[in-house]
Amino acid sequence: MNSNKNNLENNNNDDKSLNELLKILIDREYLQGAALGITKLVISKGVNTLSEKQKDVFQKFVIKKYKRECLFCKNIIVEIDRALEFGMHTSCVNKFIKYIKLQS
Q1: Domain residues for 87?
Q2: What is the value of pTM for the model shown?
Q3: 26 and 73 both lie in a single domain
Q4: How far apart are CA 37 and CA 58, in angstroms?
Q5: pLDDT band at 86; cut points 50, 70, 90
Q6: HEC profile for 72-102?
Q7: Per the structure, how many domains does the chain have?
Q8: How far is CA 19 from CA 16, 77, 97, in A?
Q9: Element (DSSP H or E) covering residue 84
Q10: What does the alpha-carbon distance between residue 86 and residue 63 come to, in Å, rounded to a whole number?
């Protein structure tokens, strides 16, 4: 359980990107039930206000399922559809392609 707590606190370091991602998940109706309510609480009050049980639910049903880190720049990917397809921000995909072409 400690690793979940540490992961969530690390997520808190990039609040703006994380909150943007969480708002997209809510707007697109990806979340429901407890995960939806806990996500709304995280947006309004922050991860540190969650109980251990809420942190576990948030970690399992939101963070592990939807949070992606760009393989190129290591920042949170907010572009959900692109993240699942390429694992990089749109701009990083373009930079990566340029890099590969320069290496050829």
Answers
A1: 68-104
A2: 0.71
A3: no
A4: 10
A5: confident
A6: CCCCECCCHHHHHHHCCCHHHHHHHHHHHHH
A7: 2
A8: 5, 11, 29
A9: helix 80-86
A10: 18
Packed helices 15-27 and 2-12: angle between N→C axes, nearest 10 degrees: 100
- Token pair 């692109």 in the structure block, residue: 82
Read off the tokens for 98. Answer: 């340029």
Same domain for 7 and 37: yes
Query: How deeply is 48 buried, as exposed, middle or buried, from its count of CB atoms within 10 A (0-12, 13-18, 19+)?
Result: exposed
Q: Which pLDDT band holds residue 14 (cuts at 50, 70, 90)?
A: low
61 and 85 share a domain?
no
Residues 50 and 80 in one domain: no
The span from the CA of 71 to the CA of 89, in Å, is 9
Residues 31 and 48 in one domain: yes
pLDDT tens track for 25-75: 999 999 999 999 999 999 999 999 999 999 999 999 999 998 888 888 888
Do 4 and 67 form a contact (C-beta atoms < 8 A)?
Answer: no
Tell me the sheet residues that pair with 76.
Answer: 69
